[in-house]
Amino acid sequence: MFHIEFFAPPSPTFIQGGIAIFEEGKKHFRRVFTVFDLIYVKSGELFITEDEIPYTVRKGQYILLVPGFEHYGHKGSSMRTEYYWLHFAIPTHYELVEEGITNWADIQISKGDHETPPTYKFSIPCLGKIENTNFIETIFLNILNVDHQTPDYQLRQQLHFHEFLLYLQKEACKIPTAAEKVVEGAVNYIQEHYKEEIKMEDIAASLHFHPDYVTRCMQKIVGETPNMYLNKYRMNQAKKLLATTDDKIANIAKEVGIEDSTYFSKLFKRMEGTSPIEYRKMILRR
Fold first, then answer.
1. Is this structure's pTM higher than 0.85?
2. Distance CA 12, CA 140 (A)
3. Which domains are assigned to the chain?
4. What is the pLDDT of residues 30-68, one digit of tens each?
């Protein structure tokens, strides 16, 4: 298996990303990009050929497609498939190598000094399986759901993207930290119970840790508290329901775990910059 090897700084640059759905039987497009194209399968599976080598990318796996190589779907999806995609560029020289980094300590090449920044080497597998899928999908959502109305949204996308690349490298070295394990448990609990009333004490009790420790881990790894993550996850689920159903706002609020529809509408507008009704109208106009 090949790895993409590059040095930073300068760091890779996020260009654009999104989420797509292939219905059963649909194939990926045939094309050649001048930038990297990373595809992560959230559900289902994709059949992709790159440089005449066929790959099957299943749920929880990703493929990193290289600039200049033609890629296309050599077979239609066998089931409904949902995937995230990210386009990015590496501003410096990169190589395709067969051996990757196995020791986390090897990532740092030089420590730098008062005038020279430290140098790091990355070696990310071109085809990989994600162990902590909830965590990586949270980073995807952080990248894609940054408020585009703020002038710094692209800068904040870059920060989340760099966190994503760093996590891919950590997974390649097989070294999840203690904090990452706590975050994985907290995220799993929230995603399984978001339709219910969730208290910080419930999350902490399920993990057998103090609430303050769980909160510190969440802030350190994903940059937000458990309650912030819960609200963001609920709003993401609400947006899906607003876009795909005719349910009343009050019913959607209850469906995502919020009994008070007035509070739900206020929270939605604060987080998304528009009301639930206006969001639904906007989606229908597209």
1. no
2. 16
3. 3-135 (2.60.120.10), 178-286 (1.10.10.60)
4. 999 999 999 999 999 999 999 999 999 999 999 999 999
Amino acid residing at 190 = I
**pLDDT lower than 70: segments of the chain:** 175-176, 286
